[in-house]
Amino acid sequence: MDSKRLDLNLLVTLEALLAEQNVTKAAARLHLSQPAVSAQLSRLRDMFDDPLLIPVQRGMTPTAKAIELLAPLRQALDGIRATVASHSNFDPAKAKLIVAIACTDYMQAAAVKPLVKQLRKSAPGVRVALRTLDASQLESQMARGEVDLAFMTPQTAPPNLRSRPLFDERYVLIGRRNHPRLRSRITVEQFAKLEHVIVSPRGGGFVTPVDDALAALGHKRNVVLSAASFLFVPEIVAESDFVALVPARLVHDRTDKLKQVECPFPVEGLSMAMVWHERSHGHNGLRWVRETVVSLINA
User: Fold this and answer.
1) Is the pTM of this model over 0.85?
2) Domain extent at residue 120
């Protein structure tokens, strides 16, 4: 059989003919005219080089070849129908899906953590694959299907990708509970004299925009540790007399070990957005995941 001549509609017709064993009844089932179904049966006979259905006194009877085709034909068509249905009527409770998400460690804690917990409750067949965020490669990764979703600042998102704002974040000053010098109303001078941990994503940096703002006020803070990851910071702060300015969502559930106070001078926060490619925009499963992220953020 020449696969180039394969017409999925013909296979649907064959399924109906084998089930009804009558051209008129098969035509009614398919909402087609009897001549149209007869013409398709002729094409099927030519395709399989077999009569497939032989006229008898009442209706038609399938040939040995037709009987042999019935089970794999139904299996193949059922698989296609299931695939189409899964994309048009996404059922989280039954769906099987892998979602590749690229983001920083901070957004793993702020957005991915609550998402994964929710998925285990409402969509246990949906799994998450985390990838390191590389803004320079993101658009091509998404075009190839390697990344489905990214969490990042809007200004770093590739302009050709779709995006949706998630939240605006502020920074809070954290220290261990019962820290001897961390007061609820700390002055700029007291802030500068504390031992600070900062985050330098590229590694090794000891100056951030916070230091520029502090310098404008005539102070320089005492930075004793430069970390490459936000996730490490709350742990070291909770076990020392270090302090750190961190995104509030990173530590909102750690009040048992950490004290949080407002920074004594204005510190610019950051905005976070959800980013995805046009190729996945219409995928109902991924759309459901995106809407779930938004609902969890706004909860």
Assistant:
1) no
2) 97-169+272-298
